[in-house]
Design a protein that fits this description.
Layout (H helix, E strand, L loop, with lengths): L1 H36 L2 H27 L2 H26 L14 H30 L9 H18 L13 H31 L5 H28 L9 H12 L4 E13 L2 E10 L7 H13 L5 E8 L1
Parallel strand pairs: 2-3
Antiparallel strand pairs: 1-2
Length: about 325
């Protein structure tokens, strides 16, 4: 008996694994199909990724054959950045998949996750640049490897192309109306930060030639601070969505006003467990519990519709109202 149960469990597990594999393969094929016939933004990002991969490959080959570790290290940095941009592209493609019985809201949140991942990487890069600035301050700058400036010039040219391609999403404290806005903005910030980093590497020797003391440390320190200030708003916004914080564009006073208007009804005893959050930017979800007095001539539908109407005025169209009658 136990053997038969084990065989059934094994067959069931095997079927589930096969189903998951087919689902993943289907998702990958869907992503590549959308990339081939996708919108202009997706094609622009694919072009930018190709440029970065080509640049990092050439830089890695030159560094490997000439024995310059700095070029090899920078090539790995560019490759990792290209991987994040590829994840952004994948999120754009996969998010177009329609909701199903497993992902009832679809895969739109992949765009938010991609933006958060980009922001986290850029914050870590800011810390890395700050450590590099401290290292430049301690070491003798005359012994530093200035051949990296040539690589920085090439990298700057590549990233300026990306800045121009996504210039419509330029800014710092943007209002994200759709999940793709957040993802596109993270791509723009990614290439902008790389451009600023390259500009800092290029300007440091020039400042040094003018006789400035600790030019490289000063330049990299300014770059680190600029990157941190540019990226932090996106990090907070994307992290807030993933942590299901209250929608920032809806004032707390407005939610409290709706709460008070519901409580003032004679047939409502208590309002509790009111929760509101963004599934993705532009899609606010809410739920609350009403305790109401049970009356013979009570119109339950009218009370629920009244509650929906109040929150609909705030832009909350996806609201679940649970009613308990006492």
């Amino acid at each position: 008996m136990e053997k038969n149960e084990a065989v059934k469990y094994s067959d069931s597990f095997s079927d589930q694994v096969k189903e998951d594999k087919f689902w993943v393969l289907d998702l990958v094929l869907l992503a590549f199909r959308i990339m081939r016939t996708g919108n202009q933004r997706m094609k622009s990002l694919l072009f930018l990724i190709s440029l970065n991969v080509a640049h990092s490959t050439v830089e890695f080959a030159i560094g490997l054959f000439t024995g310059r570790i700095g070029l090899v290290s920078d090539a790995f940095h560019l490759t990792f950045g290209s991987g994040l941009l590829t994840f952004s592209l994948f999120a754009m493609a996969a998010s177009q998949r329609k909701p199903d019985h497993v992902y009832t809201y679809g895969l739109q949140r992949l765009q938010v996750l991609s933006a958060f991942t980009n922001a986290l990487f850029l914050l870590l890069e800011s810390f890395s640049i700050a450590v590099g600035a401290l290292d430049a301050f301690i070491e003798d700058e005359s012994e530093r490897k200035h051949y990296l400036v040539v690589s920085a010039v090439t990298n700057l040219m590549v990233n300026l192309i990306g800045v121009c391609l996504f210039r419509n999403y330029a800014g710092i404290n943007l209002v994200y109306k759709k999940p793709e806005d957040m993802n596109y903005h993270s791509v723009w910030l990614h290439v902008l930060v790389d451009s600023i980093r390259s500009a800092g590497l290029i300007s440091a020797p020039w400042f040094q030639s003018l006789g400035a003391n600790n030019a490289e440390a000063l330049s990299m320190g300014l770059v680190s601070g600029a990157v941190f200030m540019l990226v932090m708003p996106l990090f907070k916004a994307s992290g807030g969505v993933l942590l299901q914080m209250a929608p920032p564009h809806i004032p707390t006073s407005a939610l409290c006003k709706c709460w008070g208007q519901i409580t003032c009804r004679e047939d409502v005893i208590q309002v509790s467990e009111a929760r509101f959050w963004e599934v993705v930017p532009g899609h606010v979800v809410g739920s609350l519990l009403l305790k109401a007095q049970a009356q013979q001539d009570m119109d339950c539908g009218a009370m629920v519709e009244y509650v929906h109407g109040l929150y609909r005025e705030l832009g909350i169209h996806d609201l679940t109202v649970q009613t308990d009658y006492i």
